[in-house]
Amino acid sequence: MLPIRHVADLVGLHWHTVKAIDKQRLQRDLPAPEPTRLRRLMMDEFALHKGHRYATVIACADTQQVVWVGEGRSREAIRPFFEWLGEAREQIEAVAMDMNSAFDLEVKDQCPNAEVVYDRFHVVAKYGREVMDRVRVDQANQLRDDKAARKVIKGSRWLLLRNADNLKPEQAVKLEELLAANASLTTAYLLKDQLKTLWFADDEATARNVWQEWYDMATSSGIEALARFAKRLAPYLQGILSSARHRLNTSVLEGMNNRIKVIKRMAYGYRDTAYFFLKIRAAFPGKVR
Questions:
Q1: Hey, how many other C-beta atoms are within 10 angstroms of the C-beta on 91?
Q2: Alpha helices, DSSP H only, in the chain?
Q3: Which candidate, 229, 269, 265, 254, places its Cα nearest to that of 57?
Q4: How many CA atoms lie within 13 A of 262 on its CB side?
């Protein structure tokens, strides 16, 4: 509950001693995951250190227990998890992830009966970066001679990216005024909301129809960034449609990442990654089914 340094000062021991005791406690007391009980998984990456060093966390989608954490985010980096899984690989039904080709390829290679489910949060966030931000900047650049209007559009990033339900009344009014004054921003914003409905379709046939309607509107919108995004998203369609059969709670992934950031921040970072990974597993012991 406290950083090691604080505990060391409290009990009068060297911080190395406190850390060694805590690490041994975790190694002794953490329950070993049971691979034969796993059916649906969630995979995500998080920043391990500055300088684009990452680690991968894999959790059970049904119990929210973290079952494995490893350094790296390549196929080779996550392969030890599947080796640990052993014959239980054949019983995995679905794996939720972002559009990480390394995760995708390794899951398909290792788990013959598993369906990949692409995470809604990551797809919509990617839309925000590649479409909403691009359209907003392009529209602002067209208003170089109108500094006041240009400033409004340049400062509207968070209004356009946040869910409308999370806006305060005065923010909702600003958003409505902004969209009323700019057709391209309105088109991109409305298609962002319609894209989300893919993950809430009642069945795969309905989701496919929604996708076709969305894709046709995106590619014929006349907005280059939007059409380009739609074409890049098309090869990932099956992983999106899979969400109609496997209702994985995608928000859990982001919640876990936020908690991991808190664990790392409390310790001012970890030099011992094995200890850090034990801390993560301890933070997500799972729920009783």
A1: 15
A2: 4-11, 15-29, 75-85, 101-110, 120-127, 133-141, 147-154, 157-161, 169-180, 183-196, 204-219, 224-233, 237-241, 251-266, 273-283
A3: 254
A4: 9
How many Cβ atoms are within 10 Å of 26's Cβ, its own excluded? 16
216: its two tokens: 């046709």
Q: What is the CATH topology of the domain spanning 31-119+250-283?
A: Nucleotidyltransferase; domain 5 (3.30.420)
- What pLDDT digit, counting tens, does each position of 48-104 carry? 877 678 999 999 999 999 999 999 999 999 999 999 999 999 999 999 998 888 999
pTM of the model: 0.83
Any idea where the domains of the chain sit in the sequence? 31-119+250-283, 121-238
**Which residue's entry shows tokens 């969400």?**
243
Q: What would the two tokens of residue 165 be?
A: 């339900």
